[in-house]
């Protein structure tokens, strides 16, 4: 009974928050580009200043990840995102094509519902706030229940910075006590105009089922392919750095290592040099039970935990300085825990004989839960890189870099983003790194630039012949005369010209 009352109260508060956001957005859409740019600049700067503070709050609340790494995420989500969008036009006339005589005008969606994950709660909240407001929208955020305090704190910082710069109160809203029911009601609220959902598969499915436009992103299970021409020493260091970044909580992080047999021994040596611990058969079995106590489902208790903590959970010890846990593997399936997405510093190591095997194995791994998201390759063979990229069913392929933060735009030329679309491969509407350009609509004023003669419709070529045939048909004329006399018994002879006109009218109506 108490939970029902609590849930109802939460929904009521959410509805009020949406109403305030709607009222604020109606004022906000009258702001100039300069006013909006000043607001998001202040938000980005204030959030950036609080990056470490928010990182500490996040680790304390969720128990996931590493403070120093979450600080980097917050910096990317604030000033990194700001730098990538600050010069974009998002208000009024944004482009003119003088040659084609088309003028493009931006207009906002309205109120955006944003869903944030537990793995990257504060950085995602900051990033979504910036891109929403830059496009003249209001935003209402539903935090993950296990990260609600740090997420709300990040939003309060953003909201105060916006108010200090002249934004209407309520432009940035949030749900203090999120539940799945409240989040679902938020997405279905009639005043919500767009959903940007980052989270589990069920949540993304709910966003797409809400009846509203939605950007949702799927899970990642991206392999990294160590191609035989790779600089193994450099590649392995990047892979370990990437996998241990925030203890593997980014969906774009490498999930499996696929190595060519010619360089396997060198790779194993470098993995050990970088703190990797290769488990034995008994330890592998223990780890499998910890990774996935229920076959096909990831144990949430290992997400964002260190290799040491996970090893202890599995009942064995690892040396001081261990960075990742690695097990040699051959099978890919939902029922083999090492081959599913593991948001933790755990790797399966697959050995392949040639490029064809590598591609087939990587596709199997992607089809096992990460189709459409990301994968990576380390290689110095440009043809091998291009062929790999063409064959992989993903939306981004990182080359010779850290996949985790490279996909998010930190070490690549991709737009900085914490919502990475999976395209049609992953059942998403977009394959892009979601940014401000996805959060406004464009209307177009188009002038006529070509002359076109519209032809007069041609009548049936046999039209006149058919009319003449009907008019000259004696039986038809006699039927008309009978019909007239049946109506007026007093009439005498009927003028044949009148009969002809009646038949012509009937014929024209019939043929048309």
Polypeptide structure, described:
By secondary structure, this protein is an alpha/beta fold. It has three domains: 2-217 and 437-446, Aldehyde Dehydrogenase, Chain A, domain 1, CATH 3.40.605.10; 223-415, Aldehyde Dehydrogenase, Chain A, domain 2; 463-511, no CATH class. Helix content is 45%, strand content 15%. It contains 18 helices and 15 strands. It has helices at 2-28, 33-49, 51-62, 67-85, 121-134, 148-164, 180-188, 201-208, 232-244, 264-273, 281-291, 307-314, 355-367, 382-391, 403-406, 463-471, 474-487, 496-511, and strands at residues 92-97, 102-108, 111-115, 138-142, 172-174, 194-197, 214-216, 223-226, 256-260, 276-278, 324-328, 346-352, 372-378, 394-399, 440-446. The strands form three sheets. Strands 10-11-12-9-8-13-14 form a seven-stranded parallel β-sheet, sandwiched between helices. A five-stranded parallel β-sheet has the order 5-4-3-6-7, sandwiched between helices. Strand 8 (223-226), helix 9 (232-244) and strand 9 form a beta-alpha-beta unit. Helix 2 (33-49) packs antiparallel against helix 4, helix 4 (67-85) runs parallel beside helix 5 (121-134) and helix 11 (281-291) packs across helix 12 (307-314). The longest helix is centred in the first third of the chain and has 27 residues, at 2-28. The radius of gyration is 33 Å and the shape is elongated. The termini are far apart. The relative contact order is 0.11. Mean pLDDT is 91; it is low at 1-6.
Task: Give the SSE map.
Blueprint lengths: L1 H27 L4 H17 L1 H12 L4 H19 L6 E6 L4 E7 L2 E5 L5 H14 L3 E5 L5 H17 L7 E3 L5 H9 L5 E4 L3 H8 L5 E3 L6 E4 L5 H13 L11 E5 L3 H10 L2 E3 L2 H11 L15 H8 L9 E5 L17 E7 L2 H13 L4 E7 L3 H10 L2 E6 L3 H4 L33 E7 L16 H9 L2 H14 L8 H16 L1
Parallel strand pairs: 3-4, 3-6, 4-5, 6-7, 8-9, 8-13, 9-12, 10-11, 11-12, 13-14
Antiparallel strand pairs: 1-2, 2-15
């Amino acid at each position: 009974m108490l939970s029902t009352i609590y849930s109802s109260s939460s929904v009521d508060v959410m509805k009020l928050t949406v109403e305030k956001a709607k009222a604020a957005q109606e004022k906000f859409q009258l702001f100039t580009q300069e006013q909006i740019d000043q607001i998001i600049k202040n938000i980005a700067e204030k959030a950036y200043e609080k990056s470490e503070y928010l990182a500490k709050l996040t680790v304390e609340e969720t128990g996931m990840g590493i403070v120093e790494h979450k600080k980097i995420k917050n910096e990317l989500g604030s000033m990194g995102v700001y730098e990538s969008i600050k010069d974009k036009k998002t208000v009024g006339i944004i482009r003119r094509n003088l040659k084609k005589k088309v003028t493009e005008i931006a207009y906002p969606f309205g109120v955006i519902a944003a869903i944030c994950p537990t793995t990257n709660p504060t950085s995602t909240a900051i990033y979504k706030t910036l891109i929403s407001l830059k496009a003249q929208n209001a935003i209402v955020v539903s935090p993950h229940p296990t990260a609600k305090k740090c997420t709300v704190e990040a939003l309060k910082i953003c909201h105060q910075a916006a108010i200090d710069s002249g934004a209407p109160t309520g432009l940035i809203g949030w749900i203090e006590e999120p539940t799945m029911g409240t989040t679902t009601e938020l997405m279905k609220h009639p005043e919500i105009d767009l959903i940007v959902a980052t989270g589990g598969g069920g949540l993304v499915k709910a966003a797409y089922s809400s009846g509203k436009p939605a950007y949702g992103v799927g899970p990642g299970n991206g392999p990294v392919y160590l191609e035989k021409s790779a600089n193994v020493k450099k590649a392995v260091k990047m892979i370990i750095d990437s996998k241990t970044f925030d203890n593997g909580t980014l969906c774009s992080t490498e999930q499996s290592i696929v190595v060519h047999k010619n360089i396997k021994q060198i790779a194993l040596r470098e993995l050990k040099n970088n703190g990797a611990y290769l488990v034995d058969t008994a330890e592998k079995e223990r780890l499998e039970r910890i990774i996935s106590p229920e076959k096909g489902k990831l144990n949430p208790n290992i997400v964002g935990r260190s290799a040491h903590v996970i090893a202890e959970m599995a009942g064995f010890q690892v040396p001081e300085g261990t960075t990742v846990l690695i097990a040699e593997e051959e099978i890919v399936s939902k029922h083999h825990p090492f081959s599913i997405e593991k948001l933790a510093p755990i790797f399966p190591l697959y050995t392949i004989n040639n490029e064809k095997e590598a591609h087939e194995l990587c596709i199997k791994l992607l089809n096992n839960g990460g189709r459409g998201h990301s994968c990576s390759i380390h290689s110095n063979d440009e043809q091998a890189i291009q062929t790999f990229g063409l064959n992989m069913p993903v939306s981004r392929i990182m080359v010779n870099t850290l996949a985790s933060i490279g996909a998010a735009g930190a070490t690549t030329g991709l737009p900085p983003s914490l919502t990475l679309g999976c395209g049609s491969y992953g059942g998403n509407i977009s394959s892009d790194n979601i940014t401000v350009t996805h959060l406004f609509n464009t209307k177009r004023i188009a002038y006529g630039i070509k002359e076109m003669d519209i032809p007069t419709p041609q009548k049936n070529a046999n039209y006149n012949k058919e009319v003449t045939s009907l008019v000259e048909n004696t039986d038809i004329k006699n039927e008309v005369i009978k019909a007239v006399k049946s109506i007026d018994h007093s009439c005498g002879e009927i003028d044949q010209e009148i009969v002809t006109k009646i038949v012509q009218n009937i014929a024209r109506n019939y043929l048309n």
